[in-house]
């Protein structure tokens, strides 16, 4: 019996009752020995549950896991804003997070503020809050001002 057949047999066995930790570890350890075609077959199999499928994906795309985040961190701010505005690119949330971190660190504040002002409403509110905090301090909301009129 090949490693592929063994893993598939175990996936069928544990499909309904859940994996035992020892068997799951054993199957995960066998994954790197499989060919790419066998890994793809496992990924598309109806017997493979989310736990094993996640490990199959990690083996299939081991060279790409984590590189997208690093690529975004290494981008220049102008290129990052272009990527942020591309709503179909799939990197909007990562770009938003990186732009917010750069703004808080004091890098290219004007450019980032301009990009957030022409973005969606939550980005506009976030940038307005940050600017308000810079002008009036951390507690710039109306809670402090409500007690001062009494």
**Measured on Cα atoms, how large is the radius of gyration?**
24 Å
Beta-strand proportion? under 5%
Q: What's the count of strands?
A: 0
Judged by helices, strands and strand pairing, the structural class is: mainly alpha
Question: Number of helical segments?
Answer: 10
Low-confidence stretches: none
- Mean pLDDT, rounded to whole units? 86
Order of helices and strands: HHHHHHHHHH
Structural domains: how many: 2
User: How would you sum up the major sheet?
Assistant: none
Helix content: 55-70%
Task: Choose one word for the global shape.
Answer: elongated
The span between the termini is 82 Å
Verbal overview:
- This protein has 150 residues and is mainly α.
- It has 2 domains: 58 residues; 75 residues, no CATH class.
- The protein is 69% helix and 0% strand.
- The protein has 10 helices and no strands.
- Helix 3 packs antiparallel against helix 4 and helix 6 packs antiparallel against helix 7.
- The termini are far apart.
- The model has no long low-confidence stretch (mean pLDDT 86).
State the main characteristics.
single chain, 150 residues, mainly alpha, 2 domains
